[in-house]
Every structure is written in C-alpha cells, then in structure tokens.
Design a protein that fits this description.
two-stranded antiparallel ribbon, 11 helices, 323 residues, mainly alpha, 7% strand, two-stranded antiparallel sheet
Length: 323
C-alpha cells in the first residue's frame, strides 16, 4: 500500500548485486590480497567476538551493551541478537573449521569450534539444522575414514532420542533448543507457512513483492486458550517459501536454478574449493527451511556472496589467501 516503502526494498537486491563484483575484485586482484584477507578476518573475528560476548552475557544473565537483564538467560544470543545463529554464524563456523582442517591451522579450527558451540547453546532451529546439514560433509571431506562410523553414530543417537521423546509423549516438532516459549514459537512458524501457501495461491507467478506486508493474510495463533494476533503476513520463516510467496514461480525457479548449478559445480570440481565450501553451503540450504535470510538484512547474502566468490577465484585464489 506504500509504494515509497516498497521501492526502498530494492536495496536488498542492489547490495547483493554489487557485493559480487566488490568481493570478486578484492580476491582476484593480485595487489588486493591483503585487503581480501583483511575482509575475511574481519568477518571471522567479528562473529567470534559476538559469540564470546554471548557467553559472557549468558554467564552473567545480563546484556551489558543494551544495559538490560538477559531476557532468557538460558541460551546465548550474541551482540546482534539471536537470529545470527540461525544463518550467519554456522556459515562462518563451518568455513573456519574447513580452513583449519585443510590447511592445518589450529587458530582457525579453534575459532570454528568456538562459534559452533555458540550455535549449539543458542538453541536456534536454523542453527541446529545448519549443523546437521553441514557436519556430515565436513566429516566426509576432512575425515573420510571415520565417515561410516559417524553416520552410524548419528543414526543411533537420532533413533534413541526419537524413541525417548515418543515414549514421554513429547512431539519432536514442538521442541526448539532451550526456549521456554518453544511450543508457541513453533506454532507461529507453522501458521506462517500455512498462511504463506494461501497467499501463494492468489499470486503464484510473480508473487506479492519482496517483504511487502500482506495485511489481507492475517496470522493468528491460538495458544493456551488465548488468541494471539501477529498482524499481516510478512516474514514466512523459510527462505524458499519467502522467495516463492514474494517473487512467485519466476523468482523461485531462478533462485533454485542458481543453487542447483552452484552446488553441482562445487561437488564435481573436487578440489580445495569443494573441501572448504560444501559444509557451509549445505548448512545454509538446510537452515533455509526454517529461517529466511531476508529477515537479517543483507548479512547472510553478503556471506553467501563471499563464498560464491571463492568458487569463482578457484583453487589458486583460495591458496593465496590461506598463505
């Protein structure tokens, strides 16, 4: 209903578009090697500082930057809030671990483990799914002789946990980390998906516009005998659903085509690029089921663009940066 507000959202596309050329220049240019390494280290250490701060706030149950008592005090939240553990931190964590394992860099391995634990203690659905999606590939490419044992261990643990939950009458879908409001949070997401599909039926080809608030599709959830109104649909809590609802079949076809050929190339090339990027990319793909990267502005898009540029520069470019 507000065309000016809608037009401003083009920044999401513009930033991602120009970011590709910026990072490509930094990494490929011989004279910009130091700048490219600086950018990579800024990202890695920036997220690490956020995670360390999260541990401190978690321990003292107080957010010193916002000057408020920690809302939950039962999980780490980071400087920028809890959502960065759904997408961005797992991407950085897997990249650090892959670099550490491949180039035998203990420092990067340590940073990767630190951020990985932050994801675990955050209890964010997307973060946990990201670890589930990326960890098998990390083990396969860097510890291949232990891969079969890893798969068996995961199956046994997964089956055991499922049996325990079912025996206690607990619905696994309604569990999300350590949050006391997990059932409500899950119900809201399920409702968002349901309303999203309803909106899709009314405009299937071109969608409703990126992140436009759709007041004609109200999101109402009944929880503990109370009706909770979340207003009109805007965030679908799933990147795939967000793309198809907001940009229609045209948008989702383009998006999935890009992902398909990128992943196909990564797996087929079987070089250092494969070893370093596949865990992060598959973690991102799985976490996209329950989080939308558009909710965190352009941070996730920047990181994905950064990984994509590593694919472009290839083996020699990455080795130059790792020297």
């Amino acid at each position: 209903s507000d065309p000016i507000r809608g037009f401003k959202k083009i920044r999401y596309l513009i930033v991602c578009f120009f970011n590709l050329y910026t990072l490509d220049y930094l990494i490929k240019s011989i004279g910009s090697k130091k700048k490219a390494k600086l950018l990579a280290n800024l990202i890695i250490y920036g997220f690490t500082v956020s995670t360390i701060y999260a541990y401190v706030s978690f321990y003292f149950k107080y957010d010193f930057i916002k000057n408020v008592a920690e809302d939950i005090g039962k999980r780490v939240t980071g400087i920028t809030g809890i959502m960065n553990y759904g997408y961005e931190t797992p991407i950085v964590a897997f990249f650090c671990l892959a670099v550490g394992f491949y180039f035998r860099k203990k420092e990067k391995t340590g940073l990767g483990l630190l951020n990985t634990l932050g994801v675990v203690f955050s209890g964010v659905r997307g973060g946990i799914l990201s670890l589930i999606g990326g960890l098998p590939f990390l083990v396969y490419y860097h510890f291949k002789k232990y891969f079969k044992a890893f798969v068996i261990l995961c199956l046994v643990c997964g089956l055991s946990v499922t049996i325990v939950l079912v025996a206690k009458g607990i619905n696994p879908v309604m569990i999300s980390g350590q949050r006391p409001d997990s059932p409500l949070s899950t119900l809201v997401r399920l409702k968002l998906h349901q309303v999203g599909f309803t909106a899709l039926k009314d405009s299937p080809v071109y969608g409703h516009g990126l992140l436009n608030r759709k007041d004609q599709y109200p999101v109402n959830v009944r929880y503990k005998d109370q009706d909770i109104d979340y207003g009109g649909l805007q965030i679908c809590e799933s990147t795939y659903l967000q793309v198809i609802v907001d940009m229609g079949l045209v948008g989702i076809i383009l998006y999935l085509t890009f992902l398909f050929y990128w992943v196909k190339e990564l797996i087929q090339r079987k070089d250092v690029v494969t070893y370093l990027l596949v865990p992060s990319v598959f973690g991102f793909l799985l976490s996209s089921l329950v989080h939308t990267m558009f909710i965190s502005g352009t941070t996730t898009a920047v990181l994905i663009s950064y990984l994509y540029n590593f694919s472009v520069v290839g083996e020699n470019g990455i080795k130059r940066l790792a020297e």
